[in-house]
Design a protein that fits this description.
Mean pLDDT of chain A: 84
Distance between the termini of chain B: 33 Å
Helix content of chain B: 55-70%
Number of helices of chain B: 15
Structural class of chain A: alpha+beta
Structural class of chain B: mainly alpha
Number of domains of chain B: 1
Number of strands of chain B: 3
Radius of gyration of chain A: 37 Å
Distance between the termini of chain A: 117 Å
Largest sheet of chain B: 3 strands, antiparallel
Strand content of chain A: 15-25%
Low-confidence stretches of chain B: 1-17
Number of strands of chain A: 21
Number of helices of chain A: 22
Largest sheet of chain A: 7 strands, mixed
Helix content of chain A: 25-40%
Low-confidence stretches of chain A: 622-636
Largest interface: A-B, 42 and 51 residues
Oligomer: heterodimer
Mean pLDDT of chain B: 84
């Protein structure tokens, strides 16, 4: 059987070849075993680490921002629960229908819908998209009740910065807003979505302390970044609470009082320790708007407002101090031996210097004036006379001692230094030699002289304290956990002013307010023991031409607002035991005595009323461990 | 593992008896050990698909179980059909598969960026998978008719080479590099065991090396990428290299004993791509470690030994070459898939037989094993070299 024989040959060949093939297969499979051994045993640990790295993600937990409290512990900047309703795309079978049902419970506008659609397209399917923020409690309750019919909808509790005093405090506290590109400094916290940092005021200055430190959580994530579960959590530390020197009640009073004008600023401080009790600037703005994000319309209306609502005029508004400058000219003169009891000047309404005439504000003049009378009546001619004798540099030196011409160092960003001109200053900045006439102009706080309301308040405080170098401050201390720490109250150095000279200035300021013929008699404080001493100021913002002077100077009421004089007043109280200093400026207010004086008077009366009401500042430098006498039952 | 040889199966008389076996006799002849191994592998596959769906039978395990049940019945039916029937139909099947392949080229729908599927109304079919069986059947039939002397003549190789070249070109055009490699290598094994001279293989290997630069031009950009990525996976860790890096991390992190069933972090957190198909071995190795991976490999080796032993035992060249070609086919699936997920060869898209999710592949593998079993059931049947089988 040849077929069988032949097949046996082929069978033999096949057997040999199949064996070779089998050996090849075994060899190849052995490489697989070797590879498995290499990957799983030799390199196993390395790959285990890599798998953990894949799986575990470290996420930051944003710390709670520290509160800002007033001197009594009243929260000025707080954190509020922000209830948001969010929708998760992948859990919502019919987004349009779900939003329609939700729309029956809370208002959802067309622009909300467009934003939701846009966010949903951008974000991954499991990332919640905010439908509506800042829900009221009843809205939250109504959604919760029907949550079963709203697939993919949930209520999310976020945190938002709340400013209970709103615009009253906006200039001091500043505001928080989203982190911008230039704020990024490598701190990963700043890169968290929705994180807010202080952008102005106390919020900015104390941002590091208020921010706290981030906690972390380790979460297991999948390849798409979705959190599967939390593995470990380390809570961060909340920010420190900053305790300010401000008195929230007084601040509100000051702000409301200023609102009787269009554009004004006021500073009240405690001359004993430099505590700024109130610092107002109007118009103001709503700090919450920055937190939520301004529309471009809101932003341009803030930016283009001619009254600069974003500028804190109390520290950054520069004004010619006008007659409020006269006290320090008087002091400078007395230090030069001029002016004390003996020196008198006859005022006939103007004085000549070469061909120029320098007018007193009072047409026809005041007659003969001594130093005290010159303050009482705010006679300009007296100061033209003494300033000519002592020169601009002596005036500038005294102004600098009293805090003008450079920032006084308040702990608030954006403080301006103002201008106190000297001969050298003019050479350097204008490039022309100093003119004697400019000394005369400067002596009544006009011309180049510029100061902030804060500086005028500090000047007043330094006078009222009997010549102490009072430095203002806004932060009293901070609270960290249960520990309250006070910043040390500085010991103010003595400015070396002659007490007798100061007494004469005080007497002049007393006459201004409390003498029926003084310029601010109508603004006096009548309560016994609370009396105020002060000085009016009215600073021109226009040049009065010779023709106008001959025709009769326009009354402020007849001028357009922008051309009216600035009204100023500085004062302190109580007169016989000075404690509080205040400076008020009303832009284009017209008259210092009629407009700024009454405001200052009201403020100084209010600050004393509040003191007599025995309000105790928040105790500092002690452990505020939970007190046992926190009466729980009393509220009922 | 030695093949159990039935005590009564030796000798011409018994052989004669085998030519007309009853259905019951055939059923008894079926190698139930091999069936058990197939079921074990499929069971492991279902478990892994359950795990791949994070502990759910849907969407993969349940559907795969239905296909498995159908596939096993088909496998047994194929095993019981007389080997002479398969012999006669070999060319028919080959041309059928070839026409389907051409059909894919003409009207096939596009899936996963490659034309691989053809819609036959009721089922979606991957003709390239069917071709893996058909090519082995056709080559076995061809070489069955070539005598030991004639096999030395180069002219005799022209027809089988064309038989391999036609489907290879079509599959490469789809483009499906993995299947092309599988087709060519399985065919090579049949050529080799049919007795084609060794130097001819060396010649082809050298020619093949020389052709690499030319062939490179014909590869699609994604295929070129896969090869480049294989050479240096870290080059593009988030792009084309991502799969293989994550696969190695998953495998390596499994360690010796694994992370436990359903506990594979890489696979369950979706770092591992295609974990229900091509990368299912990675998931198994992550969850059951080296022990599990070696156990699976062991079962495959047992199946391969069965196949090789059956081919060695058959009394006709057709059955020998058929069983050997199909066993080699299975070996290539296993080896290429495992080597691919371990980063030993480029990612070419070859599934793990009986484990990976996919209907056509499972059907092909089960039909292939069915044919190997048929070669065993009908091992003593002789078929004349010139193919005329009397009385069949």
């Amino acid at each position: 059987m040849s077929m069988i024989n032949e097949d046996q040959d082929r069978h033999k060949v096949f057997g040999r070849r199949a064996l070779m093939l089998g050996c090849a297969k075994i060899a190849l499979l052995s490489t697989l075993v070797g590879r498995l051994y290499y990957l799983q045993v030799i390199e196993g640990e390395k790959y285990k680490t890599l798998a953990e790295d894949n799986r575990i993600s470290l996420r930051l937990l944003p710390p709670e921002r520290g509160k800002i409290l007033d001197r009594f512990g009243t929260p000025l900047a707080d954190n509020r629960d922000n209830y948001r309703v969010v929708i998760v795309r992948e859990q919502t079978p019919d987004i349009a229908e779900t939003l329609r049902r939700l729309g029956q419970l809370i208002p959802i506008t067309g622009s909300d819908r467009r934003r939701i659609e846009r966010d949903m397209k951008r974000k991954r399917a499991f990332v919640p998209v905010t439908v509506k923020e800042n829900l009221s409690w009843s809205q939250v309750a109504s959604i919760e009740a029907l949550i079963g019919d709203l697939p993919g909808i949930s209520i999310d509790r976020g945190n938002t910065r709340d400013y209970p005093y709103g615009a009253d405090m906006a200039h001091v506290l500043g505001y928080v807003a989203s982190v911008s590109e230039k704020d990024l400094n490598g701190d990963p916290l700043l890169e968290l979505p929705g994180f807010r940092i202080g952008k102005n005021g106390i919020e900015k200055l104390h941002d590091d302390a208020l921010r706290g430190s981030a906690g972390t959580k380790e979460v297991e994530i999948n390849a798409y970044g979705r959190e599967i579960r939390e593995l470990r959590r380390q809570e961060g530390t909340s920010g420190k609470e900053i305790i300010l020197t401000l008195d929230a009640g007084l601040q509100t009073f000051v702000h409301q009082r200023l609102l009787s004008e269009q554009s004004a600023a006021a500073v009240v401080m405690d001359i004993e320790n430099g505590d700024v009790l109130a610092l107002g600037s109007i118009p103001s703005f709503d700090p919450a708007a920055f937190n939520l994000g301004l529309s471009s319309k809101q932003w341009s209306s803030l930016i283009n407002n001619p009254m600069f609502p974003l500028t804190n005029k109390a520290i950054a508004g520069l004004y010619a101090p006008g007659s409020t400058f006269k006290m320090l000219v008087a002091l400078a003169a007395m230090e030069e031996g001029i002016g004390a009891h003996s020196h008198t000047v006859y005022c006939n309404g103007f004085t000549r210097l070469g061909n120029a005439r320098f007018h007193c504000w009072k047409r026809g003049g005041h007659g003969r004036m001594n130093l005290i009378e010159s303050l009482q009546h705010s006679c300009d001619i007296y100061y033209y006379d003494v300033s000519r004798r002592i020169g601009i540099n002596k005036i500038a030196a005294m102004a600098n001692r009293l805090g003008l011409g450079q920032p006084v160092g308040l702990d608030l960003p954006g403080e301006k230094g103002g201008v106190i001109p000297t001969r050298a200053w003019k050479e350097a900045n204008i490039g022309e030699p100093w003119q004697v006439g400019e000394t005369l102009i400067a002596s009544i706080g006009q011309g180049y002289v510029l100061a902030t309301p804060l500086q005028l308040a500090v000047m007043t405080a330094r006078l009222a304290s009997g010549g102490k170098k009072v430095v203002p401050r806004l932060a009293r201390g901070y609270r960290e956990g249960n520990r309250r720490v006070a910043y040390p109250v500085p010991e103010f150095e003595d400015l070396g002013l002659n007490p007798e000279h100061l007494r004469m200035v005080f007497q002049g300021m007393d006459e201004v307010v409390n003498n029926p013929r003084g310029t601010a008699y109508r603004a006096r404080i009548r309560e016994e023991g609370w009396e105020m001493a002060g000085k009016t100021g009215t600073s021109q913002v226009r040049r009065i031409t010779l023709a106008e002077r001959q025709a009769g100077v326009f009354r402020n009421e007849d001028l357009p607002w922008r051309r009216r004089d600035h009204a100023l007043f500085v004062g302190f109280a109580p007169m016989h035991k000075p404690r509080y200093a205040c400076a008020v400026i009303v832009e284009h207010g017209g008259s210092g005595s009629k407009v700024a004086g009454p405001i200052c008077s009201d403020i100084l009366r209010e600050v004393q009323r509040r003191r007599s009401a025995e309000l105790q500042p928040f105790p500092l430098n002690e452990d505020a461990s939970p007190r046992e006498d926190d009466n729980d039952g009393e509220e009922a | 593992m030695p093949v159990k040889v039935h005590p009564g199966s030796r000798g011409a008389i018994v052989g004669h008896k085998h030519e007309n076996m009853s259905l019951l006799q055939k059923l008894l002849q079926i190698n139930w050990g091999l069936v058990l191994l197939v079921l074990t592998l499929s069971g492991i596959g279902l478990g892994m698909l359950y795990s791949a769906a994070n502990g759910n039978f849907d969407p993969w395990a349940s559907r795969q179980a239905v296909r498995l049940a159908g596939g096993c019945i088909i496998m047994l039916v194929v095993a019981l059909v007389d080997i002479r029937f398969w012999f006669k139909c070999s060319y028919l099947f080959y041309f059928g598969a070839l026409i389907l392949l051409i059909g894919v080229e003409v009207m096939g729908s596009v899936g996963m960026g490659a034309k691989r599927w053809i819609n036959l109304g009721v089922i979606q079919l991957q003709p390239s998978e069917l071709m893996k069986i058909a090519i082995v059947m056709a080559l076995a039939r061809y070489f069955h008719g070539v005598s030991a002397e004639n096999i030395r003549r180069p002219l005799m190789l022209i027809v089988p080479l064309l038989m391999v070249a036609a489907p290879s070109v079509l599959v490469l055009k789809q483009p499906d590099l993995g299947t092309t490699v599988l087709l060519i290598m399985a065919s090579g094994a049949v050529f080799f065991c049919a007795g084609v001279r060794l130097w001819k293989f060396v010649l082809v290997a050298v020619a093949g090396m020389a052709a690499i630069p030319v062939g490179w031009q014909f590869l699609k950009p994604y295929q070129q990428n896969r090869v480049l990525t294989f050479l240096d996976p870290e080059k593009d860790p988030l792009g084309t290299g991502y799969n293989i890096i994550q696969s190695k991390i998953a495998l390596g992190s499994g360690g010796v004993s694994g992370k436990g069933f359903l506990q594979g972090t890489q696979s369950h957190l979706n770092f591992l791509p295609e974990k229900q198909t091509d990368f299912i071995f990675t998931m198994l190795a992550e969850e059951f470690g080296m022990i599990g991976a070696l156990a699976l490999l062991g079962i495959y080796i047992l199946v391969l030994i069965y196949g090789m032993a059956i081919s060695a035992r058959a009394r006709n060249q057709y059955a020998r070459l058929l069983a050997l070609g199909l066993t080699t086919n299975l070996f290539l699936y296993v080896f290429i898939n495992m080597a691919m997920v371990m980063g030993l060869v480029p990612v070419v898209g070859v599934p793990l037989p009986l484990i990976s999710y996919g209907g056509t592949v499972m059907l092909t593998i089960l039909i292939g094993i069915g044919l190997v079993m048929s070669a065993w059931v009908h091992r003593d049947i002789r078929i004349p070299r010139h193919g005329v089988v009397e009385g069949a």
